[in-house]
DNA sequence: AGAATGTCTGGGAGCGTTCACAGACTGAAG
DNA sequence: CTTCAGTCTGTGAACGCTCCCAGACATTCT
């Protein structure tokens, strides 16, 4: 690779000093129009590109943030929600010329690496995804005082780590109400893990509507994977063969539940109505297509990024953002 | 954030000079056991973490590579293959303590940004994903002489950009042979875009087996999206209502084809056999589950990363890697 | 006129590393 | 005892940038 032009070369080409070039680069005031034009021309002529390392060295800013995916490796990206999140975050960050480093935090070694990376000052901020309650990394990051936000609250750290999320509880209520209105009498639910906000709050919303009808017999827990949806549904069928509806806390798990129901010879929605949550791409590719709760995940990602950038820009604290959900009726319920 | 310890602090704590600490850090020879121990201790005591910016400034190496996703924004991550790729790459790179920056290259602005980023020396290498023939970015990167590899050949640049890929052509042959053996007579195909290797070679393999039976009437093109699978299937049904099998070049598109067939009242596999390609997570969540060709995508990603790291480490050139595929029989054919 | 204020520019210092070099010390070979 | 090769260590000079300060100059106010 040929030697790249430095700020010196630009300064020489423009007939000004480094200082002036730097001022132009950083959009400072106090640069005469003539100098400004000369520098701009010199920049394009020389093909100059600022060296972020050198800049970071003095500014202590890197122009990049890291997205941390806190799931066991094989689960990461199983749910299409991950794709939406990452794609949206990259786009929003790109607008500000901030780049996104993606790291996995599925085991202790990973978490150690992430921490070293962040403590090393290699990222201006951290975007936590699918962080479970009791995550040691989240605590360590808070202690490091690095700007950090999460997609969805971190259970137990709601006040320490700002977040954007869908209104999980109200969303679950919407689905529960709908199932009741449809005349379903024995409504079960498959929740997410109880150390995630989606797990907890979607169950709460469900219970809000069902009241004491939400008996433990009709509640099963999954771990967001399709397979867990399958097995939770199987347990449910065994324990409550007379159920006529099930609210599954994610579309992916709902796809699993659907498979189990089919294998058991139950027709959907005739025998059993199935309600999902997310309105992810899966919802339209199952058979039958899922009636589900749409959460505006792209918008959640955008808001999360916005919060993070505000923190990076020096805001002392930012308020969590909760976005509304909507019921999407298809064929499964 | 409290001031982070520098190499000076470590040197002082260990009672040696910067140079010695640097030698320990970089695993150099010529450090006495005593000095080595003292430095190691000082490092843990002070909680020292090397500043990569300062290091990069002098070494001209960044310890990070960038993965470039060359699809329109809304298509990126629609296919679960992306997840497998990115997750595997991150893991493999992490073993070498290399971090992964993910960038989108869906439009010209994006490509410009990627190019600036790479030319700016912010990444040691580039991992291209889903790059189409005629991609200007790929050419520009080759010209920049930055280490670059691709997942799947870049059509037209097979020799300029090393890659790892599944044996698309042979995989397609396997499926075509299987459908023939099953007694199917009028076998159609839905290909990927003809400017991608998967699009071209899976059609070639199909044609290898079907010979002149692979008439243009029985060939339709999709763009890898589920929706394109739906519409391609619809066009096929209109043009060749008597078809009794269809080989779809990706599971995601096959899911779309399945939906169209169902809507048209064709039973799968009774009336029409459907063969997919990828054996992605979708294959088991469709109804019926897809008979498909497994491509070892995680392994492809691993090999691609390996090639990239070799180039980054200074290898002049590396040989492309082609990995075998296998037929996976489920219910759709 | 002189002072005060504001605009613009150049250049030294420093960010935290690695690298090359010079020099000190050791032990073995002549 | 000298020479030489090998081992080990410290230090100055980069790497490419931003920040800060001093100073030049122009304009306005008293």
UniProtKB/TrEMBL annotation, chains A, B:
Domain HTH lacI-type per the UniProt entry, residue ranges: 5-59
SUPFAM superfamilies reported in the protein's UniProt record: lambda repressor-like DNA-binding domains (SSF47413), Periplasmic binding protein-like I (SSF53822)
Entry-linked InterPro entries: HTH_LacI, LacI/GalR-like_sensor, Lambda_DNA-bd_dom_sf, Peripla_BP_I
Highest taxon, organism lineage: Bacteria
Keywords recorded for this protein, A-Z: DNA-binding, Transcription, Transcription regulation
Keyword DNA-binding: yes
Gene Ontology terms, MF aspect: DNA-binding transcription factor activity; transcription cis-regulatory region binding
Transcription found in the keyword field: yes
Identification of the protein by name: LacI family transcriptional regulator
The organism of origin for this protein: Microbispora triticiradicis
